[in-house]
Amino acid sequence: VQLQASGGGVVQPGGSLRLSCTASGFILPHFANAWFRQAPGKERESVSCISNKDGRTYYADSVKGRFTMSRDNVKNTMYLQMSNLKPEDTAAYYCATDPLFACSSDLEQDYDHWGQGTLVTVSS
Questions:
Q1: SS in 3 state form for 98-121?
Q2: Helix/strand/coil for 30
Q3: Residue 56: how many CB atoms within 10 A of its CB?
Q4: Cβ atoms of residues 70 and 49 within 8 Å
């Protein structure tokens, strides 16, 4: 049972990146699927989440209108399309799944599976 994240890299301000996270050993739509990020010296924060209860997608205010989260159920993969990137988006990005709270929680302890993190650097 694991999540494998990929897609990070270095991009200039205003640029775009797409992160991917593929699950093995379990079925993503059976869980809430989320992306978190952790910037240097800061706590991990929730970025986006797709609920397994109603299918809605939620975003942190800081990324609304710039990031889009999606999922391909056939590929068992979640994505985070990031556009108009800003230097403050620089962080390690983690995918995670929650079996119980359907995106109502953004506490790390409520997410049971985590990807290894992929680093996004936004710099000119």
A1: ECCCCCCCCCHHHCCEECCCEEEE
A2: helix
A3: 10
A4: no
CA–CA separation, 25 vs 98, rounded Å? 15
Residues 6+ apart with CB under 8 A from 55: none
Q: How many CB atoms sit inside 10 A of residue 1's CB?
A: 9
With left for phi above 0 and alpha for psi between -120 and 50, is residue 75 left, alpha or beta?
alpha
The one-letter amino acid code at 98 reads: D
Q: So what's the pLDDT on residue 112?
A: 92
Task: Quick: pLDDT tens for 24-79.
Answer: 999 999 999 999 999 999 999 999 999 999 999 999 999 999 999 999 999 999 99
